[in-house]
Specification:
Radius of gyration: 17 Å
Shape: globular
Order of helices and strands: EEEEEEHHEEEEHHHEEEE
Helix content: 10-25%
Strand content: 35-45%
CATH class: Alpha Beta
CATH architecture: 4-Layer Sandwich
Number of domains: 1
Distance between the termini: 23 Å
Largest sheet: 7 strands, antiparallel
């Protein structure tokens, strides 16, 4: 996943709002969001390695992952990062406790960021810097660098998210900001070790590139009354709409978001 926007306790009726795009090669086999038969989670599934980039449980336990883009750091044969989300969702530990023990120093994986929530806590960790911290109320953006790095697409999307919150419960503006395919000027682009041509293609929130691009856009809402909504639009190559699934359910008794 290459863009995750999180509004944490920034709206009076929706303590957790997530808008996220997953970018991946179209040749990589993927299952759309569903409740897994073998684990109590709602998530899409990477059919190659078995993990996921984003998921939530019926108790409102949430996690999402992005890769850290730096080809010089990539190691062949590293453990699949998607297993981290699955592992976290299967525990009951507080986010910052689990992330500190399992993500901040996860040397067997290529670079990643992991953001996680449960109950009244949101936390972020990266194995690139070893950072691990709880996050206060606010709006956060995460792409393929560190949390709130000033990449143009992160800054533009965070600003758009702040505006989209005012439209809730209508969440169409969240999908609109995820569909933004604006390519940003060269002078604003990061230099992450890929060619300038790829930096341009990857600079938009919604990516369209040969054989690669945004595979799914997901909006997740956790409401104050205990209702969880997960709406996922999948995309085909060239930005054509694929299937769409939407789930709405109540938090399990005793859980809170």
């Amino acid at each position: 996943m290459c863009l995750i926007l999180v509004a944490w306790r920034a709206h009076p009726d929706y303590p957790l709002v997530v808008a996220a795009n997953r970018d991946e090669f179209f040749a990589r086999p993927t299952a759309p969001a569903s409740f897994w038969p073998d684990r109590p989670i709602l998530a899409g599934r990477d059919r190659k390695e078995g993990g996921t980039w984003m998921g939530i449980t019926r108790s409102g336990r949430f996690a999402a992952l992005t890769n850290y883009r730096d080809p010089r750091r990539e190691r062949a044969g590293a453990v699949s990062r998607g297993g981290l989300v699955v592992d976290y969702l299967g525990t009951n530990e507080a986010p910052v406790t689990w992330l500190g023990a399992n993500a901040a120093s996860a040397v067997n994986y290529n670079g990643f960021n992991l953001i996680a929530a449960s109950g009244d806590q949101l936390a972020w960790a990266s194995n690139v810097t070893g950072a691990c911290q709880t996050l206060g109320p606010g709006v956060y953006g995460l792409s393929n660098h560190l949390l709130d790095s000033p990449w143009p697409k992160v800054q533009a999307a965070r600003s758009a998210l702040a505006g989209a919150l005012t439209a809730l419960p209508d969440y169409r503006p969240l999908f609109d900001l995820l569909r933004d395919d604006t390519v940003h000027p060269d002078e604003q682009l990061p230099r992450t070790g890929v060619s300038i041509e790829w930096e341009r293609l990857l600079s938009s929130a919604f990516v369209k590139a040969p054989g690669y691009g945004t595979r799914s856009s997901t909006v997740l809402l956790a409401s104050r009354d205990g209702t969880l909504t997960v709406d996922e639009q999948t995309w085909l190559e060239g930005g054509k709409a694929g299937g769409r699934v939407c789930f709405r359910f109540r938090l399990e008794a005793g859980a809170s978001s």
